[in-house]
TrEMBL record:
It holds the Pfam family HD_5. Keywords: Membrane, Transmembrane, Transmembrane helix. This is HD domain-containing phosphohydrolase. It comes from the Bacteria. Residues 370-423 form the HAMP domain. The chain crosses the membrane at residues 12-35, 347-368.
Length: 908
């Protein structure tokens, strides 16, 4: 995939927009800080608002409950507790009427008695409430009573009273059946002192939401109660929304919704059960559902941010204690887009101001940067020339800005140096052979410092000597190592000491003193110096180091000084350049040495494998070493053909290398072929020759014949007749074994009559009395266990093809018809068949079809093994060449049965 092209911008644009961008960043940070500050103010304000809402709701609940508690406390002192008759219970009606008229939140006042009697006073404040109880007229109070008629029968009655507490009507209601003792408020209040409150619930009679307050009377066992409506709390919630879309709900500890802006959603009317309050999950308000899941720690409110229906919400859960022991939770969900609208308005206003400032800054920044980048544009054009490898022109840039002026001068010097360095690098990379490479390194170094000549020495394997490799003089004559002096011992003449010091310090050494006769002779320069009549010789010794900074050798540059006033100044910059060139040369030299060493190592390993394969079998010994010789002779003959189909055939040096490797490795797959298969000399031979087992069976039968003779004699039989029978049987056994042994030796062809005789002999039986599964290997016993062991003693065939003689293929043995190498092999049903009759009836040779397949499989393994090796590109043909030596031009070879096409493509 091509690399994505990066966007390139002029420096003037970058500089101008950097200034503008910096200004924009500063303004943006300030705007963001203002936004965050506004957010924090809004959050703080919301916390205050939530506290106010919580206090307001709690106060509203207390204002509903506390007066009712006080009224209930007053009622427990009334005569309700001692009243035994209905008339006595109706006597406090004025008090009740006054109480109900003062509080619109009281839905009903009622009293339950221990005997199951009950009385309830309900205000009828409007026509809607009258219709609910099927009441007409001006009744303002409904008294519902259940009393015992003295026979244990409970009678239900409705009494209607007007505003003056005058009885208007009495109605018998037989269907009105109610036992207060079964109600939770009665049971809880009857067992404790003080006022009890029930959790909020839906009143059955009018579907109002409220709660019941109850208290036991001071005298008697009656329990007085008040039903308090909580509708005012829901109204308060609707009025206290922070934003238009704010959601608020009041829930109890069981998750029931006690107050919500929509009363209809709060009430659930199941089909087959009583009406009840909705749970928070049934409101279908995700923000409130998430708020209810928040946990309260130390009875403090909890806050979080969630995303619901594409909007981000601030959700809060705050505890609200309406009375001791009765705590509700206030759930609040505020959408961010409404909550932080003011903060966004602040950011938008500051953004407009920032935009105006940036527009004013653009012209000023553009003018200033234009003056600054003009010389840089000229330098950019010069660097583009360098990128295009155009080093022909020099750079002359001058600027009042010091950094730009220095950059122009440095760029000019860099172009000059690169010109020289590229020339040397190109020359080194282009030379494929070692000796010419050394000569090219020396030539480039001599030209670089304008010396008269030089030499390259390579360090010996014992690292005690420097071996001269190449030498050059100003007339460019190339001298081989034989024309140079002898190797230099590093502890020899003084000049050798200088060489040793350069290798040890890994730094360039210069020698400017006159060299003595011994030094000139050691370096092979005596004749040159006398011929040039040089007064002295200047030497520059450059160590050649490998990647690990270990010495490879030394490069020595020679300058002959012929005149007294002649000077040769190898400046520091030039010496650094020489050092850099020597580094590149050292890498190139080391690479060549490593490649040569690797090639020798690979060649030795290949021959090692071939030798191991030859040593594996006495029958094929020397084969892997003869094939490369024959292959090269055949290839050379084809390359040398001037006429015929091979007249245009030729091999490159790399192709010769691939052919040699393929010839040496053509049978490497034989390492996987068992020796007893390769060297199988008889038909029954595996790791040992099984003819010995069969001989023992014949011996047993011969002994059985002798035992039968003596048994017959002991039983009174004719000794002469019995001996004749024994002798005849033993003679036949000897003849049959001799025939079996002869068949075991194998041959060119086995006639069908011999096969029939083998099968007849196999039908004879001998008796085995010992289990053949004792003392055998795990694998052999596993094969035997495929068939149940017979009861001993057992008569067995003299020659057998048993089930345990069949060795199945394992999963890794199978190649399959569809394989990545294109092998076309007819795999036998079994990996091995060691049946005795089966092996003795081999028609030609000693190998079964399974064993012949296993031998042929060596070429499959050769291809698989070679395909797995990471051959370099020029050796990719090795698996194909090595794996094709059993293919035929007519396509009848193996393993792929291919003709004029690639036989063994690499696996995908």
């Amino acid at each position: 995939m091509p690399a994505k092209r990066r966007i390139r911008l002029p420096l003037q644009v970058v500089a101008a927009f950097s200034v503008i961008g910096l200004l924009a960043v500063v303004v943006s940070l300030l705007s963001w800080q203002a936004y965050r500050g506004t957010q924090e103010v809004l959050i703080s304000a919301s916390n205050d608002a939530i506290g106010y809402i919580s206090e307001a709701i709690a106060e509203k609940a207390r204002r509903n409950i506390e007066p009712a508690e006080e009224q209930l406390a007053a009622l427990v002192h009334s005569s309700f507790g001692e009243a035994d008759t209905l008339e006595q219970r109706l006597a406090p009606l004025p008090l009740v009427s006054d109480l109900l008229s003062r509080s619109t939140l009281i839905d009903a006042l009622f009293v339950g008695y221990p005997n199951g009697e009950f009385i309830l006073f309900r205000p009828l404040r409007n026509e809607t409430e009258r219709r609910r109880f099927s009441i007409t007229g001006d009744a303002t109070i409904l008294a519902q009573s259940i009393t015992d008629d003295g026979t244990g029968q409970m009678i239900g009655e409705y009494r209607l009273y007007d505003r003056q507490n005058r009885l208007l009507k009495t109605e018998s209601r037989p269907e009105y059946v109610f036992d207060p003792r079964m109600r939770p408020w009665y049971q809880e209040a009857a067992t404790q002192d003080g006022v009890i409150t029930t959790p909020p619930y839906v009143f059955f009679t009018n579907e109002a939401i409220g709660m019941t307050l109850a208290r036991r009377s001071l005298t008697g066992g009656a329990v007085l109660g008040l039903d308090i409506k909580l509708i005012s709390i829901a109204t308060e919630l609707s009025r206290m929304r922070i934003t238009p879309s704010t959601e608020l709900a009041l829930v109890d500890q069981q998750g029931q919704v006690v107050a919500y802006r929509d009363m209809l959603q709060m009430i659930i009317r199941p089909a087959h059960s009583e009406i009840r309050l909705a749970r928070i999950d049934e409101l279908n308000v995700p923000a409130l559902q998430q708020a209810n899941k928040l946990s309260l720690r130390d009875n403090q409110k909890s806050r979080a941010t969630v995303v619901s229906n594409g909007r981000t919400w601030q959700i809060i859960k705050s505890p609200l204690e309406v009375r001791p022991g009765r705590t509700l939770s206030l759930l609040i969900g505020i959408p961010d887009d409404e909550f932080f609208a003011a903060a966004r308005h602040v950011v938008w206003r500051q953004t407009i101001i920032a935009g105006v400032l940036i527009l004013l800054a653009i012209p000023a920044a553009w003018f200033i940067t234009k003056r600054m980048v003009k010389p840089l544009r000229i330098l950019a054009r010069e660097t583009m020339k360098i990128e295009s490898f155009d080093f022909s022109s020099d750079i002359k840039i001058r600027s009042h800005i010091g950094e730009i002026d220095d950059l122009g001068r440095s760029l000019d010097r860099m172009k000059r140096t690169i010109r020289k360095f590229l020339k040397i690098g190109t020359a080194l990379a282009a030379e494929p052979k070692f000796k010419p490479l050394l000569d090219r390194v020396l030539q480039e170094a001599v030209d670089l410092v304008r010396s008269d000549g030089g030499a390259i020495y390579m360090i010996s394997e014992d690292r005690q000597m420097l071996i001269p490799e190449v030498i050059r003089w100003h007339d460019r004559e190339l001298f081989s190592a034989e024309q140079l002096s002898q190797p230099l011992p590093l502890d020899g003449p003084a000049i050798c000491i200088n060489l040793a010091e350069a290798l040890e310090t890994k730094d360039i050494r210069t020698v400017e003193r006159p060299l003595n006769e011994d030094e000139l002779t050691a370096l092979g320069l005596h004749g040159f110096v006398h011929r040039l009549q040089a007064l002295r010789v200047l030497l520059i010794i450059v160590p050649l180091l490998d990647r690990n900074q270990a010495p490879l050798g030394a490069l020595m540059l020679i300058k002959a000084i012929s005149h007294e006033n002649e000077q040769f100044d190898a400046g520091e910059r030039l010496l650094k350049l020489v050092h850099a060139v020597s580094g590149s040369a050292s890498v190139a030299i080391q690479n060549k040495l490593l490649l040569e060493a690797q090639r020798k190592l690979i060649d030795a390993l290949i021959k090692l494998v071939a030798g191991a394969i030859d040593a594996k079998s006495a029958y094929t010994g020397g084969h892997c070493q003869r094939v490369p010789v024959l292959t090269r002779l055949l290839a050379e003959a084809a390359c040398g053909a001037k006429t015929g189909p091979y007249r245009d055939f030729n091999l490159s040096e790399e192709e010769w290398e691939a052919l040699d490797i393929a010839a040496w490795l053509h049978d490497c797959g034989k390492v996987t072929t068992p020796e007893y298969v390769v060297d199988k000399a008889t038909k029954l031979e595996t790791i040992y020759d099984r003819i010995h087992e069969i001989r023992n069976r014949f011996e047993i039968l011969k002994r059985d014949a002798e035992i039968d003779y003596w048994r017959g004699v002991a039983e009174g039989g004719d000794p002469v007749e019995l001996r004749s029978k024994m002798t005849s049987a033993q003679r036949q056994l000897d003849d049959d074994f001799a025939f079996v042994a002869h068949c075991n030796e194998g041959g060119e062809f086995m006639e069908p009559t011999k096969i029939e005789r083998i099968k007849r002999i196999a039908k004879r039986t001998w008796r085995r009395t010992i289990s053949n599964r004792l003392g055998v290997s795990y694998e052999e016993k596993a094969r035997m266990d495929r068939v149940a062991e017979p009861m001993l003693p057992v008569d067995e065939p003299l020659l057998a093809d048993r089930d345990d003689h069949l060795i199945y293929h394992s999963e890794r043995d199978l190649i399959g018809k569809t394989n990545p190498w294109g092998f076309q092999l007819n795999e036998p049903t079994y990996k091995y068949n060691r049946g005795e009759v089966y092996n003795l009836c081999i028609s030609r040779g000693t190998l079964t079809a399974e064993e012949r397949y296993r031998i042929n499989d060596h070429i499959v393994q050769t291809i698989v093994m070679l395909e797995s090796l990471p051959f370099p590109a020029h050796l990719k043909s090795v698996p194909e060449l090595a794996g094709g030596h059993h293919e035929k031009m007519d396509g009848k070879g193996y393993p792929s049965g291919c003709a004029a096409r690639r036989c063994h493509p690499s696996p995908a």
